[in-house]
């Protein structure tokens, strides 16, 4: 008998490899900069080259997924992602590497938003919590293992091997997706607009104050939070030269541990604090962690502080994501894509802008800007949301929905 839908474990595998690829360069910036004889801030453009197209193409894949089938979009883009990622390992210059990361960012943009929308379409709400929980674990593991694996390869092999490895794994996932594409239903909505008409739903969302608040907030969140986070690995290597790349990778993986802690405790947190309380908790934790990283010269303190960063980030981000999934239930692919577009556009701009701060004023000011920005953002959002009464999720546990970087 044919399966009724794609296993969540397979969607999770696709999300795992994409999530791992997003952050793989963080512990390797120093090595890549040295090989291409470039500044750390300039090399950080690798992150921008990936996240800007990742964000922009959310706007394309949302309507296409609704019209042509979400599973089909994931399958076709996964093979492009696999090939592009593998070729990154052969890049002869920083410019070529940036161009290849741009291509892989374009392809990767379809995977996580389409997966979340596919889960929303194929699982009844009472079953969705368990499905998203499994999906979330894969995303968190991608964050944890990527930086650790990047550190190991940075110490013992060449940074190029990590891209070759990810390309091969992604190609295997493509094969499995291709198999299921031919055997399970992948509903299409031929009436869903494409071309310029496809942007009308985005406009209709943005002209409304409450959805606009969510979209603007997640853009600023990406700018401040990941604008600083991109350079944490390079900061550790410059500040504490005795640290190996392996140890730096393991330390950076604490961010993923923080996300797992959040996923395990979210029921109690939502029940006790509510959505606005979670937003303020996340802003406060991010502020404190970034400030201590900047001002306290103890390398071992970075380990718990990075876990706190993960907990703080997801306290804010998952709450925003919950609201985003209910902005347009009849076209979740479009709504979630607009949300992801805003997030990754903010990340790309943040990495570029704060990279200039790193090169000209140093890491300390960069992390202070990130921390203060997150605290101000959370306070502003809570004040605005109380006035506007934005979209609320129908169930408290829906705050477990997370869309990663």
Structural features, described:
This protein is mostly helical and 405 residues long. Helix content is 78%, strand content 0%. Helix 8 packs antiparallel against helix 17 and helix 15 packs across helix 16. The C terminus is likely disordered.
- How large is the share of residues in beta strands? under 5%
Strand segment tally: 0
Low-confidence parts lasting 5 or more residues at pLDDT below 50? Answer: 390-405
Q: Secondary-structure element sequence?
A: HHHHHHHHHHHHHHHHHH
Q: Which structural class matches the secondary elements?
A: mainly alpha
Q: Quick one: biggest sheet?
A: none
Radius of gyration, whole Å:
20 Å
- Shape, please? globular
> What is the share of helical residues?
over 70%
What is the number of helices? 18
Structure summary:
The chain is mainly alpha-helical and 405 residues long. It has helices at residues 8-23, 29-35, 40-43, 45-56, 58-68, 70-88, 94-108, 111-122, 125-156, 160-181, 200-206, 209-229, 232-239, 245-252, 254-295, 302-325, 332-361, 363-388.
Keywords:
single chain, 405 residues, mainly alpha, 18 helices, globular
List the helices and strands and how they pair.
Elements: H1 8-23, H2 29-35, H3 40-43, H4 45-56, H5 58-68, H6 70-88, H7 94-108, H8 111-122, H9 125-156, H10 160-181, H11 200-206, H12 209-229, H13 232-239, H14 245-252, H15 254-295, H16 302-325, H17 332-361, H18 363-388
Helix pairs in contact: 1-8, 1-9, 1-10, 4-7, 4-17, 5-6, 5-17, 6-7, 6-8, 6-10, 8-17, 9-14, 9-15, 12-16, 12-17, 12-18, 13-14, 15-16, 15-18, 17-18
């Amino acid at each position: 008998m044919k399966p009724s839908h794609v296993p969540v474990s397979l969607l999770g595998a696709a999300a795992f490899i994409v999530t791992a690829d997003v952050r793989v360069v963080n512990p390797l910036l120093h090595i890549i900069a040295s090989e291409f004889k470039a500044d750390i801030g300039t090399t950080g453009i690798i992150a921008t080259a990936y996240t800007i197209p990742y964000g922009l193409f959310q706007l394309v894949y949302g309507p296409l997924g609704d019209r042509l089938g979400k599973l089909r979009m994931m399958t076709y883009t996964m093979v492009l992602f696999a090939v592009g990622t593998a070729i990154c390992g052969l890049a002869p210059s920083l410019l070529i590497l940036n161009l290849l990361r741009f291509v892989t960012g374009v392809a990767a943009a379809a995977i996580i938003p389409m997966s979340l929308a596919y889960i929303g379409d194929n699982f009844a709400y009472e079953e969705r919590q368990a499905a998203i929980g499994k999906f979330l674990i894969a995303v968190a593991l991608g964050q944890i293992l990527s930086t650790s694996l990047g550190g190991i390869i940075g110490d013992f092999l060449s940074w190029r091997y990590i891209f070759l490895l990810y390309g091969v794994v992604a190609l295997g996932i493509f094969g499995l997706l291709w198999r299921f594409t031919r055997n399970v239903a992948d509903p299409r909505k031929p009436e869903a607009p494409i071309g310029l008409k496809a942007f009308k739903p985005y406009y209709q969302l943005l002209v409304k104050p409450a959805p606009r608040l969510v979209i603007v907030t997640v853009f600023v969140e990406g700018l401040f939070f990941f604008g600083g986070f991109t350079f944490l690995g390079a900061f550790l290597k410059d500040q504490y030269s005795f640290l190996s790349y392996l140890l730096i990778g393991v330390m950076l993986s604490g961010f993923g541990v923080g996300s797992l802690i959040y996923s395990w405790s979210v029921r109690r947190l939502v029940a006790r604090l509510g959505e606005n309380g979670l937003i303020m908790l996340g802003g406060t934790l991010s502020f404190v962690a970034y400030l201590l990283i900047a001002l306290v010269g103890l390398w071992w303190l970075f380990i718990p502080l990075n876990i706190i960063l993960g907990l703080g980030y997801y306290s804010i981000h998952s709450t925003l994501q919950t609201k985003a999934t209910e902005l347009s239930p009849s076209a979740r692919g479009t709504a979630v894509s607009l949300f992801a577009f805003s997030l990754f556009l903010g990340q790309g701009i943040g990495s570029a802008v704060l990279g200039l701060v790193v090169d000209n004023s140093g890491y300390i000011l960069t992390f202070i800007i990130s921390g203060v920005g997150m605290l101000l953002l959370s306070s502003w959002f809570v004040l605005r949301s109380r006035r506007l009464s934005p979209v609320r999720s129908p169930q408290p546990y829906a705050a477990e929905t997370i869309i990663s970087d």
